[in-house]
Amino acid sequence: MQGTKLEVESVLRETCDGVLNDLSISRDKAELRAIALQILGDAYMSVKRDGEGPQGSEDEYVRVDTKSSWDRERAGTTR
Q1: Dihedral (CA of 58, 62, 68, 74) sign
Q2: How far are the Cα atoms of 11, 36, 42, 61 from residue 33, in angstroms, in the given order?
Q3: Residue 27 — pLDDT band, cuts 50, 70, 90?
Q4: DSSP for residue 20
């Protein structure tokens, strides 16, 4: 399960970097995007099943396939 958690974190990191490091937008728009990402992050962290704590359990993670994960699988390597 740890590999899946790292994959989710990797996708989130790549997405945040892309959204925040877009050179075609103004600094004000980048700041608004950062605020929106914070709101999404707060919502993400508050998701839980009935009867569980705010973080949930590690077995709740799902696999998220990305282009880079598909490339790694085709090459026969994993992170």
Answers
A1: positive
A2: 17, 5, 14, 25
A3: very high
A4: H
Q: Are the C-beta atoms of residues 33 and 19 closer than 8 Å to each other?
A: yes
Listed in sequence order, the DSSP H helices in 21-54 are: 27-46
Return the domain boundaries, the chain: 2-75
- Average pLDDT (16-40) is 92
Instruction: Report the predicted TM-score, pTM, of the whole model to 2 decimal places.
Output: 0.51
DSSP 21: T
| pLDDT beyond 80 at 10 | yes
Are 20 and 33 spatial neighbours (Cβ–Cβ below 8 Å)? yes
CA atoms within 13 A on the CB side of 17: 6
